[in-house]
Specification:
Order of helices and strands of chain A: HEHHEHEHEHEEEHHEHHEEEHHHHHHHHH
Radius of gyration of chain B: 22 Å
CATH architecture of one domain in chain A: Alpha-Beta Complex
CATH topology of one domain in chain A: Spore Coat Polysaccharide Biosynthesis Protein SpsA, Chain A
Structural class of chain A: alpha/beta
Strand content of chain A: 5-15%
Distance between the termini of chain A: 24 Å
CATH architecture of chain B: Alpha-Beta Barrel
Order of helices and strands of chain B: HHHEHEHEHHEHEHEHHEHEH
CATH superfamily of chain B: Glycosidases
Strand content of chain B: 5-15%
Oligomer: heterodimer
Number of domains of chain B: 1
Number of helices of chain A: 19
CATH topology of chain B: TIM Barrel
CATH superfamily of one domain in chain A: Spore Coat Polysaccharide Biosynthesis Protein SpsA, Chain A
Number of helices of chain B: 13
Strand order of the largest sheet of chain A: 4-3-2-5-8-7-9
Helix content of chain A: 40-55%
Shape of chain A: globular
Largest sheet of chain A: 7 strands, mixed
CATH class of chain B: Alpha Beta
Largest sheet of chain B: 8 strands, parallel, barrel
Shape of chain B: globular
Distance between the termini of chain B: 75 Å
Number of strands of chain B: 8
Chain lengths: ~525, ~375
């Protein structure tokens, strides 16, 4: 791929408008999919499938956790809405906050701060700096930004943001991650929505410019395409678009009403849920008006995912119950769904372990025929893929974002150790230090996050060898045929999980050979095209 | 409108799925067969000791329906309750009796559950072991799924007149599927359907719910369905209970029956209705009545509990007399059930494997049979 795609990326994009005809077709697909789920449920929950009751219940819980989420996502899609553009009025006072931490590359700030300067709507840029490195001040001032030294504050960027709120007076604040290079028209696509006095924040899509650099980067980006398009558009339609880190413009009054930006590992989600609970409205505008970085190596990706999963569980266990009664019905549901996303680590671990439990003890979770499962499940699968592909018409940049996103799926599965760890840390309420996601690839070493995956693959290989030896020499002929189908079906099942994890290991291994580059060096701010149709 | 269209899509897909179900299932079935073939070729064939080698004498029978309908030797066999995962218990029993059973007996019920399908893997294993399967196929009607069989009456009303319903064809899809799988085995298979049909207390297919005519009609209907799918490899065992008589009334006819089966279980003194009965007392005069049908006789359940008498002696008495007193008996199938709670409140143990006196007695008696009855 190289950098071929790059030119195409530096152009303003917006999701297609939502026509009634599209929504009708979507509605038909969703109804079909729900009917197919009922059809499947009717097959699944049959008494004859129960082998060991507790195991069947566990299996059903883990499996239907996934299906119920899917149903919610479909319902969410039915509410897809794209806000009508609103021209911002004159003379709003606007601040842009971007933060720098020790270890972050100075050159990146040069690019970001230059891009901030180029934003056409009048504003003031502030660099919230705790590097204690004089060069940062120098760069900030060179690009017309106000340098604020904010050292020793709690939280990641939230502490600095809250302090900066006290030091500034602008009515609107865009919080920008430092790796995100804003387009000159950024504020033109967010400020207008604040004409509605009840709007507390405006979120735009998050897009990337380094996804072509590695398997991990591609996969990590693939995981986000649908979320920053159709999914958030649906949440917007349900009145609960969420603030997600970068690229969110807040109303000062809104932030002040909840005592400032939330602090925690998922501070954006905390802020988001508090604002909704306080009655503020939110807007999601599906436009690309900035591009940033996605982790390029598996280790950095896992660190980011660990931080998020731990942080999101914190919101689920602590924030969500507190604010539950202040949220609208749809908001309750969508925050619950977001908050339980990372349980996928627990369910994946379960599905990884099931075959090994069978190999060791002979216990099967259910007396289902694997073939029947595939045949009955295929209707749901076909329609689910159909819906997934259909809503891609509302991706913000379909030509680069469309697809089955198999890399994203592999990475998601291979993240089970990370998500599971995040879950455990959430349960025992353990702290993990805030680590900013690496901006450059971390190259030349094999990340420890791949170790559980290697263990899984080795365990699988060992199991296959033991099974073959046992079957060749030890299992009596009176037993061999009776156990053949079950055993090899389970080996096949374990093989699928093993291949997914192998994908993660390969991603980690490739990470050793990533050329460490500074992706921002390639970005030429003058080529950014903000024309709608250009 | 959208609802209608949506449902239409699902119906089309489900329908298309039903149409392609055949090929898909065939595909997976062929994967399964390939795995089994590979294991057969690379594992079972490579084994140094194969049980089938001990049954070389039986290969003359295995492929010859006529000699199986009229064997010259006595075919030994056994049932064991612990054979869902492995037939090792049967192997252990035969080892302790210094023999190798040409027949292995299983019980399976009718119905829609997975375990009520044709016992494919069990049958394949039995054949791989060099034996032939004897299947007691119990026409329980309560497990049939109402959706798949819309013509059926509510579950609690199915037993009354159940055999007439079978004869009417209400259960045909199940029977035909089962028969088709039996036919595809392509090796002889003993089938005992609706056993003890003259006992009004035990099973729902007894005379408390059905007339003898219903039984005969059902039997013939089932037989015809098997013929229609080409299951000519089935050997039919008609098996009344010796204590309840009326054999003639329940007999489906010479052309529908290959063997006559009789259970011979001594319950000893475990219940107030039972007492220590010898083998001769259990059979009583019934042997002559049943032998008069002119078919070979199989002792389908052969066993004695240990309570209330001398068990080794019971077996000595039974086996020593067989050749002279019961010349039509051409098969004896042990009933090896460690936890039988089907008849009494308590759990009965029919296992003899751990009773050395009994196994020794059996070994000795079998060795004394006339040579013509021994393989």
């Amino acid at each position: 791929m190289g950098k071929n795609g790059n030119k195409d990326l530096w152009r303003f994009r917006e999701a297609k408008r939502v026509r009634n005809r599209d929504k009708f077709i979507l509605l038909v697909l969703v109804i079909a999919a729900m009917a197919s789920v009922l059809y499947f449920a009717d097959w699944w929950f049959r008494e004859k499938h129960i082998n060991t009751l507790w195991f069947f219940i566990l299996l059903s819980l883990f499996f239907w956790y996934g299906l119920v989420r899917l149903i919610f996502i479909w319902i969410n899609y039915l509410h897809i809405r794209k806000p009508e553009p609103v021209e911002p009025g004159q003379c709003l006072s606007v601040a842009i906050f971007t933060t720098s931490s020790p270890g972050e590359p100075l050159e990146m700030f040069e690019k970001t701060l230059a891009a901030c300067r180029d934003i056409t709507y009048p504003h003031t840029t502030y660099l919230l700096d705790d590097t204690q490195d004089p060069r940062f001040r120098e760069v900030a001032e060179r690009y017309g930004a106000v340098w604020l030294e904010l050292v020793g504050l709690p939280g990641a960027k939230a502490g600095k943001v809250n302090r900066a709120l006290q030091l500034t007076h602008e009515e609107f604040i865009l919080i920008l991650d430092p790796d995100h290079i804003p387009f000159p028209n950024f504020l033109d696509h967010t400020l207008g929505f604040f004409r509605d006095e009840k709007v507390g924040f405006v979120q735009v899509s998050q897009a990337y410019y380094n996804q072509y650099r590695s398997f991990t980067a591609k996969g990590a980006a693939e995981q986000t395409y649908t979320f920053y398009g159709p999914t958030q558009m649906g949440l917007h339609g349900l009145g609960g678009a969420v603030a997600i880190g970068a690229n969110c413009t807040f109303r000062r009054k809104a932030l002040e009403s909840i005592g400032g930006h939330g602090i925690g590992l998922a501070e954006d989600l905390i802020t988001s849920i508090r604002l909704h609970a306080a009655g503020w409205k939110s807007v999601f505008n599906p436009v690309i008006v900035s591009r940033g970085l996605v982790p390029e190596d598996f280790g950095s990706f896992c660190k980011q995912q660990l931080k998020w999963s731990r942080g999101v569980f914190e919101v689920t266990f602590v924030e969500f119950p507190k604010l539950f009664w202040k949220l609208t019905g749809w908001q309750k549901l969508s925050y619950f769904m977001i908050g339980t996303y990372y349980l996928v680590g627990v369910t994946s671990l379960f599905f990884v372990l099931v075959p090994f439990l069978f190999f060791l003890t002979g216990i099967l979770p259910a007396s289902m025929s694997f073939v029947e499962f595939l045949i009955n499940g295929s209707v749901v699968a076909i329609l689910a893929v159909g819906i997934y592909l259909y809503v891609q018409r509302w991706l913000v940049h379909p030509s680069t974002e469309r697809g089955l996103h198999w890399r994203g799926m592999v990475l998601k599965f291979a993240s089970w150790p990370v998500f599971f760890l995040g879950f455990l840390l959430g349960v025992v309420n353990a702290e993990i230090p805030y680590i900013p996601t690496a901006k450059k690839a971390v190259s030349g070493y094999f990340t420890p996050f791949a170790r559980p995956l290697i263990a899984q693959v080795l365990l699988f290989a060992l199991a296959v060898v033991v099974i073959m030896i046992k079957r060749r020499y030890y299992i009596p002929e009176s037993e061999l045929i009776l156990s053949a189908e079950k055993t090899w079906a389970m080996v096949g099942f374990a093989l699928i999980a093993c291949l997914m994890s192998l994908g993660g290991i390969i991603a980690a291994w490739l990470g050793k050979y990533i050329q460490v580059e500074s992706p921002w060096d390639q970005v030429d701010l003058t080529t950014i095209n903000t024309n709608k149709n250009g | 409108m959208a609802v209608i269209l949506g449902l239409l899509i699902v119906i089309v897909i489900v329908f298309a799925g039903d149409q392609t179900r055949g090929p898909l299932e065939n595909f997976f079935a062929s994967v399964g067969t390939t795995v089994k073939k590979v294991e057969h070729h690379f594992i079972l064939q490579k084994r140094e000791k194969k049980r089938a080698d001990k049954l070389t004498w039986f290969s003359a029978y295995r492929n010859n329906m006529d000699s199986l309908r009229n064997p010259s030797v006595i075919l030994l066999g056994s049932y064991d309750n612990a054979t869902t995962e492995s037939f090792e218990p049967i192997i252990n029993l035969e080892d302790s009796l210094h023999t190798t059973f040409p027949l292995i007996h299983l019980f399976t019920a009718w119905g829609s559950k997975t375990e009520e399908e044709f016992p494919q893997l069990q049958v394949e294993t039995i054949l791989e072991l060099g034996s032939l399967p004897v299947i007691t196929w119990e026409p329980w009607l309560v497990d049939f799924d109402e959706e798949a069989y819309p013509r059926l009456r509510p579950v609690n009303e199915r037993d009354k007149g159940g055999l007439a319903d079978i004869a009417k064809g209400n259960y045909d899809p199940y029977i035909i599927e089962w028969a088709g799988k039996a036919a595809r085995i392509k090796k002889p298979l003993f089938l005992r359907v609706g056993h003890e049909m003259n006992d009004p207390y035990r099973y729902p297919w007894g005379p408390q719910n059905n007339s003898p005519r219903d039984f005969i009609n059902a039997w013939r209907h089932i037989h015809q369905l098997f013929d229609s799918v080409g299951a000519s490899n089935v050997i039919w065992i008609w098996s009344p209970h010796p204590a309840y008589g009326y054999f003639d009334a329940f007999y489906p006819g010479d052309e529908y029956v290959d063997w006559v089966g009789i259970p011979a279980l001594n319950y000893g003194t475990v219940a107030n209705w039972s007492q220590w009965w010898s083998f001769a007392e259990i059979l009583g005069n019934n042997y002559n009545l049943l032998a008069s049908f002119g078919k070979p006789v199989m002792i389908t359940e052969f066993g004695s509990l240990a309570v209330g008498g001398n068990r080794p002696e019971w077996f000595v008495d039974a086996l020593s007399g067989i050749a002279q007193r019961y010349p039509r008996v051409k098969s004896v199938v042990f009933f090896h059930f460690s936890s039988d709670n089907t008849t009494t409140q308590q759990t009965l143990n029919w296992y003899i494997i751990d009773d050395a006196a009994t196994t020794q007695a059996i070994i000795q008696q079998i060795s004394r049979w006339p040579d013509v009855l021994k393989p």
